[in-house]
């Protein structure tokens, strides 16, 4: 039962991931990614981590991807017919794809190899049930991992400040065009 | 799971589904009647006694109408979008308790489909997924009014979702749980609206904006946008948007009653089998208030809406969390 569900979900996640990169239309790519997030969320649920599963939907599918799709809609991006990516010629793009996939494969091979050598498999810990709750996660984040957690927060703040700085520099001329108040807010 | 448990869960799903759809169908009639009374009109009164069969007539009409797909529309997304809007709205009811418990056929039946310990987050997640239905509908129609409506509604929902999430954190802190059953049981003596008056007001405003109710119904502002994101929709696809919208209204009113008004708890002693009734009365009062608001307030302007959401609602919500935390630490 659980195995069948796992296989089905993995199939959805992998198919979704393939569609993300193979679709020519940006909006379909983005929606496929939402499908991947949904499938991973259910996988978290099966690993008895309901809090993480709901956050995956709430934050990734419900907030981040909504913004992505929002931007795609605003720029009314249609199918990518130009074949251009960061202005790289086709040969370079193929090379990049091969190198990056090679790196990913090497990573998987390393992980698999370590598992075989050390005999450790990916089974969840015995107290996994208790670890998946909001209380357990909160206690870990705010006690055991307080400093790294705060550092990630600061990192995100830096990213936000950077994003504002970038839009400010390019946005000077846009302000009048965009109609003021609501865009800045 | 044993067989009788399976049967119980499946029956519960079916019953909840029908209760929600019936309430939603009659909610449309109630809204038209109440608005008519507020505007000194009669309202629908042709179909059946006092117009009581109007929902049935509407259903037959909408189901038999043709679904028109515009020539230039993105066909797949156009057909999918209303479903994406309706399904999360209905899914939210899987974690909403409709009362305490009743005894039936010699077994104690809990009046909720499932009580997960992240129920409240699940509902917020479903409401954030519902945004897709609206703006995909607006985008795939390939119509400038629909697109404008879709963009407006996604901007609005993204902005107010945050305030809505923040406004309920005070309640979660007081109850110490995300489970709706736990939150209601924490209010057996005093409803949380007494401790969280600011939270309740914030929740109500943000929720009305999140479900596009007047005075926040900019996505479908008739004078400027025809009908907004669902301009191109007809027949059953249009009905799905409509059902989703009213289902969301019932959801937020139920959440409001559960989180702030004490759910099914009443100040006087009452048998547990009456718990759905008390909850229904509180939800009905909130729904009436929402319709009343619609009959009273004019619509916001879009920039006012954005400024209000980000510059007033969000800071006050953050302040509310801070003050709640401070008081809780001091009292302990």
UniProtKB/TrEMBL annotation, chain A:
Record EC number: 7.1.1.-
Main location: membrane
GO cellular-component term (any): plasma membrane
Any one GO molecular function term: quinone binding
Membrane protein topology class: Multi-pass membrane protein
UniProt enzyme class: translocase
Keywords: Cell membrane, Membrane, NAD, Quinone, Transmembrane, Transmembrane helix
Catalytic reactions of this protein: a quinone + NADH + 5 H(+)(in) = a quinol + NAD(+) + 4 H(+)(out)
One Pfam match: Oxidored_q3
Localization per Swiss-Prot or TrEMBL: Cell membrane
Segments passing through the bilayer: 27-47, 54-75, 95-117, 145-166
InterPro entries: NADH_UbQ/plastoQ_OxRdtase_su6 (IPR001457), Nuo/plastoQ_OxRdtase_6_NuoJ (IPR042106)
Function as written in the Swiss-Prot or TrEMBL entry: NDH-1 shuttles electrons from NADH, via FMN and iron-sulfur (Fe-S) centers, to quinones in the respiratory chain. Couples the redox reaction to proton translocation (for every two electrons transferred, four hydrogen ions are translocated across the cytoplasmic membrane), and thus conserves the redox energy in a proton gradient.
Family to which the UniProt record says this protein belongs: Belongs to the complex I subunit 6 family.
Name of protein: NADH-quinone oxidoreductase subunit J
UniProt source species: Eiseniibacteriota bacterium
């Amino acid at each position: 039962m659980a195995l069948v569900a796992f296989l089905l979900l993995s199939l959805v996640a992998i198919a979704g991931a393939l569609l993300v990169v193979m679709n020519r239309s940006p909006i379909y790519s983005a929606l496929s990614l939402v499908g991947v997030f949904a499938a991973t969320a259910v996988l978290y649920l099966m690993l008895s981590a309901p809090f993480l599963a709901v956050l995956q939907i709430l934050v990734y599918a419900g907030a981040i991807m909504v913004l992505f799709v929002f931007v795609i809609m605003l720029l009314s991006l249609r199918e990518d017919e130009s074949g251009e990516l960061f202005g790289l010629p086709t040969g370079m793009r193929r090379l990049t794809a091969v190198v990056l996939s090679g790196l990913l494969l090497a990573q998987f091979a390393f992980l698999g190899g370590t598992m075989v050598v050390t005999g450790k498999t990916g089974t969840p810990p015995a107290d996994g049930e208790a670890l998946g709750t909001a209380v357990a996660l909160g206690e870990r984040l705010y006690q055991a991992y307080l400093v790294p957690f705060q550092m990630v927060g600061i990192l995100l703040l830096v990213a936000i400040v950077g994003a504002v700085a970038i839009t400010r520099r390019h946005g000077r001329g846009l302000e009048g065009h965009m109609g003021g108040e609501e865009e800045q807010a | 799971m044993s067989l009788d448990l399976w049967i119980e869960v499946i029956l519960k799903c079916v019953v909840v589904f029908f209760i929600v759809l019936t309430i939603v169908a009659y909610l449309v009639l109630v809204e038209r009647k109440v608005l008519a009374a507020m505007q000194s009109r009669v309202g629908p009164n042709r179909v059946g006694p006092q117009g009581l069969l109007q929902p049935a007539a509407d259903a037959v009409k909408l189901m038999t109408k043709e679904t028109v797909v515009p020539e230039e529309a993105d066909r797949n997304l156009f057909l999918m979008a209303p479903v994406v809007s309706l399904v999360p709205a209905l899914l939210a009811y899987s974690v909403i308790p409709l009362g305490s418990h009743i005894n039936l056929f010699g077994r104690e039946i809990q009046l909720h489909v499932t009580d997960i310990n992240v129920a409240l987050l699940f509902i917020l997640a479903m409401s954030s997924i519902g945004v897709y239905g609206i703006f995909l509908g607006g985008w795939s129609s390939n119509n400038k009014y629909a697109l404008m409506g879709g963009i407006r509604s996604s901007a609005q929902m993204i902005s107010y979702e945050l305030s809505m999430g923040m406004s309920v954190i005070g309640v979660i802190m007081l109850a110490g749980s995300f489970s709706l059953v736990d939150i209601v049981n924490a209010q057996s003596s005093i409803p949380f609206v007494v401790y969280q008056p600011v939270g309740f007001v914030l929740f109500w405003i943000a929720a009305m904006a999140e479900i596009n109710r007047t005075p926040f119904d900019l996505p479908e502002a008739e004078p400027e946008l025809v009908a907004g994101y669902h301009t191109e929709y007809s027949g059953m696809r249009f009905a799905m948007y409509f059902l989703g919208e009213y289902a969301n209204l019932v959801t937020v009113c139920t959440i409001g009653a559960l989180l702030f008004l004490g759910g099914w708890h009443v100040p006087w002693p009452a048998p547990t089998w009456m718990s759905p009734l008390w909850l229904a009365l509180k939800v009905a009062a909130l729904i009436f208030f929402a319709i009343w608001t619609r009959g009273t307030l004019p619509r916001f302007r879009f920039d006012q809406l954005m400024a209000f959401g980000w510059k007033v609602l969000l800071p006050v919500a953050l302040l509310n969390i801070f003050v709640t935390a401070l008081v809780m630490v001091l009292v302990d």
